[in-house]
Write a structure and sequence with these properties.
It contains ten helices and 14 strands. The protein is of the alpha/beta class and 316 residues long.
């Protein structure tokens, strides 16, 4: 799969394609439904599938300071799109100037001028153009003007609730990782680099990888979780040559030691090695318990052993 930054990266002589447009944060089950529909149309027309998304998140440009927690990095988003058969992902820099394009200008610049879209597939709640003035009906009308088909895919719902990035963020924030997993179709993952922490875990017999996440990453509520750790290369791509490892994961401030800084630490079961400076993805499967301040270090160690045993029983 190809990844292009900006519309100027579209090659000269590019032919037609089927495009889908959106933020696609999380590439959750609802997004997957939209992307698969685009793929079906592309296959029927023997054309490539192109996913168009934006960086940074549009809300940060339209309403500075309102950047939501992100469920996926751009690299992870592209990986997930590739797994769904997408041929090209275009990351459009979302600037103030771009946000001020009218719906017609947006369509002509992003879909028609150089991309030559034959069909465009979006969610039925898709809005675009300055002040979100355009909707699916607008897209259909503009498609008739410029020679492409457009359709809005109905929102995927579960228990009468639409599956959305906003809903999944609320699950993650509340520590409901089971709910997040159902909506995503896979465990929520937090990517980051391993940095040096207080190294108390090693002294307690449970050495942990202290993972510093990227800015705006969606970090689960304080607590202890069962999950897995995957390796990521220097470009942010998941390494498939190294098997995922089961881990007991702590999120919080280490209240037993009166900690002040929130951290994400993973104790990787049956692992002994140096991970400093390496990139990891932390996959959160289930919440084991909330964060507790223990009256003694000995009590904490007993509970940590129980957390590890519970994690092992659940995931190995």
């Amino acid at each position: 799969m190809q990844r292009w930054r900006g519309l100027e990266a579209i090659p000269t002589g590019w032919g037609r394609c089927v495009a889908t447009v959106g933020v696609f944060d999380g590439v959750h089950r609802g997004h997957q439904q939209i992307i698969r529909r685009a793929g079906e149309l592309a296959e029927s027309q023997q054309l490539p599938t192109v996913l168009i998304t934006f960086t940074p998140h549009p809300s940060e440009v339209v309403r500075p300071g309102s950047h939501p927690p992100l469920l996926t990095t751009n690299t992870r988003k592209a990986e997930l799109a590739a797994e769904l058969g997408v041929d090209v992902v275009i990351f459009i820099p979302f600037t103030v100037e771009f946000s001020q394009l009218s719906p017609a200008q947006f369509v002509h610049e992003a879909l028609v001028a150089d991309l030559h879209a034959s069909a465009v597939v979006v969610g039925e709640n898709f809005r675009f153009g300055h002040k979100a003035a355009g909707d699916v009906a607008t897209l259909v009308e503009l498609g008739q003007r410029w020679g492409f088909d457009a359709e809005g895919v109905p929102l995927l719902t579960e228990h009468a609730r639409p599956i959305s990035s906003t809903y999944i963020r609320s699950c993650v924030e509340a520590g409901d990782l089971d709910g997040a997993t159902r909506a995503l179709g896979r465990p929520h993952r937090l990517d980051g680099v391993v940095v040096r922490g207080d190294q108390r875990g090693r002294d307690l017999g449970f050495p942990t990888a202290n993972v510093r996440a990227e800015s705006f990453a969606a970090v689960p509520a304080d607590g202890v979780y069962a999950g897995r750790v995957v390796r990521i290369d220097e470009w942010g791509n998941t390494r498939t040559d190294i098997e995922a490892r089961v881990a007991a994961i702590s999120v919080g401030t280490n209240p037993t030691f009166d900690g002040r800084h929130r951290s994400v630490e993973a104790y990787i079961l049956d692992f002994d090695g140096d991970l400093y400076g390496q990139n990891l993805g932390i996959e959160f499967s289930s919440r084991l318990r909330g964060m507790v301040k223990f009256t003694s270090v000995a009590d904490l160690v007993v509970q940590m052993a129980e957390d590890v045993a519970q994690t092992r029983a659940m995931l190995t």
